[in-house]
Amino acid sequence: MTFKTRFAPSPTGPLHLGHAYSAMLASDMAASEGGEFLLRIEDIDQSRSRTYWEEQIFDDLDWLGLRWSKPVMRQSDRLPVYENALDTLWARGLLYPCTCNRKDIAAATNAPQEGAPLLGPDGLIYPGTCRIRMQGEDLSQRPRPKNEPLRLDVFKAGRHVFGPKTPMGRFEERGEGPNGETGIITFTPEELESTIGDVVLSRRDMGTSYHLSVVLDDAAQEITRVVRGQDLFEATRIHVLLQALLDLPTPEYFHHRLIRDEVGKRLAKRDDARAISKYRAEGVSNSDVRAKVGL
Ligand code: GLU
Ligand code: ZN
């Protein structure tokens, strides 16, 4: 199997130093393993994606000296693949419709158990309101709703795929999570429910979600090592669960440190000051950019 890494930006703003670090690190790893570096445009959020940003991504990466294998995958070309996976999960009774908004979730969450975390990778941990409301109904016998958000019952799904006795999901972390987590990482269905909650797999107006697409796309591109920022470490358990549910291989993961500004704040899309295009326009060289991020 060829060693493959990828860079998967969303064309919703300029690439900044943090993106450059991620892309160069993934490309360097592919080169040192004699493998391939791939690119994927994560444009499922059509309300925020722009061709302008996509073109600038190509220009920036090219200027950074990166070369990637063709073809470039584009998520907006893959909507039927996502639909198919949702049909599979729906037929197995693992999804349920939920129209709770942020306010509803906050209201339902206001009496947390002591010590229980409130926030998961997608924000407030969903307390399962709609799942509990629909308990006992066999939703899989109904057609899958197309215009309502669908959530994954993570506890049921975890039991389903990781076995009833000592159910455990696992993945190999080659880098480090935000608290130094590394090596073989394991987790139980109970932990999924209490620290992540039932995630949305199909968003309104999108027909999919980041979690569902990223898992299907990494598998389709045959990525063997996912290199990305530590901010996505927690979400990895959901990705591993989805891989098991959809019969997809689990790649190795390498979560890297985040590039921060002078006051220690992580860079955001709107951080134009550190946009690659800005360095490019100012005549900074790409090896200076490498040095700036410590590569
Ligand atoms: N598209 C995601 C982002 O821009 C990256 C997803 C990933 O690397 O898994 O943050
Ligand atoms: Zn709900």
Automatic annotation (TrEMBL):
UniProt-listed Enzyme Commission number(s): 6.1.1.-
Gene: gluQRS
Keywords: Aminoacyl-tRNA synthetase, ATP-binding, Ligase, Metal-binding, Nucleotide-binding, Protein biosynthesis, Zinc
Any Pfam family hit: tRNA-synt_1c
Source organism (scientific name): Ruegeria haliotis
Domain of life: Bacteria
Name under which the protein is recorded: tRNA glutamyl-Q(34) synthetase GluQRS
Entry similarity comment: Belongs to the class-I aminoacyl-tRNA synthetase family.
Enzyme class: ligase
GO molecular function, one term: ligase activity
Stretches assigned to the Glutamyl/glutaminyl-tRNA synthetase class Ib catalytic domain: 4-107, 185-285
SUPFAM superfamilies: Nucleotidylyl transferase
Chain ranges passing through the membrane: none
